[in-house]
Specification:
Layout: H1 2-21, H2 26-39, H3 44-72, H4 78-101, H5 104-123, H6 137-154, H7 159-168, H8 173-199, E1 209-210, E2 213-214, H9 215-238, H10 242-263
Helix pairs in contact: 1-2, 1-3, 1-9, 2-3, 3-8, 3-9, 4-6, 4-8, 5-10, 6-8, 7-8
């Protein structure tokens, strides 16, 4: 029962952060799930893939919950969501196939480096100068493909990539965050299907796994995250989250250093 309690607590934190920052919570879910899976002695060859797949499945729920709250505030640019989704689905297919072919060693290193990148982006308060308008179909498809590909490899909702892109294209910050939350749903759909499909024939997976999605972790995290994600989204609209973002970035760096120290 202590593992279920851990999944519930993790889901509460990840849902809140996902709703507040539009990141889907994956940057928190993956490293903590990896530690929990290793503590339960899951096969080392599958632990990282299971953490990524389970985190991606949780984003299905957190993205819907937080998007609903952002939509109520009129902060979701739906034309952007629909325009980028075809590229997102293509990118998640590529990303899930690539993730299945990469060893856990290199996948963990890539994830940790991405966490450092995301944290640095927050700490330096990187906000691209609004220098252009949103691109046409070809540009949106290309951006969606790259976003879906990278987001699947690290199991995030895409906010780290889409928020700067939207700011560059003259989308206001709160709308960029709200739209990134909505974009997290097609990322999660494509990524979850990919991790399930690529893990169906893997041998030695723990019981209650559906491909690379460990169902008890997914359900435990999702049950609470759908409650806390709207709270995080509401907080983003009512609070100056600048200091919280920097504290969150420091936490990400700590988790990334722990992962790199362990794997290297």
């Amino acid at each position: 029962m202590e593992w279920y309690a851990a999944y519930l607590m993790l889901g509460a934190v990840a849902g809140f952060l996902g709703g507040m920052f539009g990141i889907g919570g994956g940057t928190v879910l993956v490293p903590v799930l990896l530690l929990l899976f290793e503590a339960q002695h899951f096969p080392a060859a599958h632990a990282m893939h299971l953490a990524l797949g389970s985190a991606m499945a949780v984003i299905l729920f957190t993205s819907v919950s937080s998007t609903r709250k952002h939509h109520q505030h009129g902060a979701v640019e739906w034309r952007v969501v629909f325009g980028i989704t075809p590229g997102i689905l293509l990118g998640t297919a590529i990303g899930s196939l690539l993730a299945a072919s990469i060893s856990p060693y290199y996948l963990t290193i890539f994830f940790a480096l991405f966490m450092c990148f995301a944290a640095t982006q927050i700490l330096l308060d990187v906000k691209p100068h609004a220098a252009r308008q949103l691109p046409g179909i070809a540009g949106m498809t290309l951006m969606g493909t790259v976003t879906g590909w990278i987001s699947t490899l690290v199991s995030v909702g895409g906010g780290t990539l889409t928020v700067p892109f939207l700011l560059w294209c003259n989308v206001p910050l709160r709308h960029a965050i709200g739209t990134a939350s909505a974009i997290g749903f097609p990322i999660a759909v494509g990524g979850t299907i990919g991790y399930i499909a690529t893990g169906l024939h893997a041998s030695g997976l723990p019981d209650s796994s559906l491909g690379y999605v460990y169902l008890p972790a997914m359900l435990g995290c999702a049950v609470v995250s759908v409650i806390t994600a709207p709270i995080g989204a509401k907080t983003a609209h009512r609070t100056n989250v600048a200091m919280l973002r920097k504290l969150f970035a420091v936490m990400l760096i700590g988790l990334a250093v722990k992962l790199l120290w362990k794997v290297l």
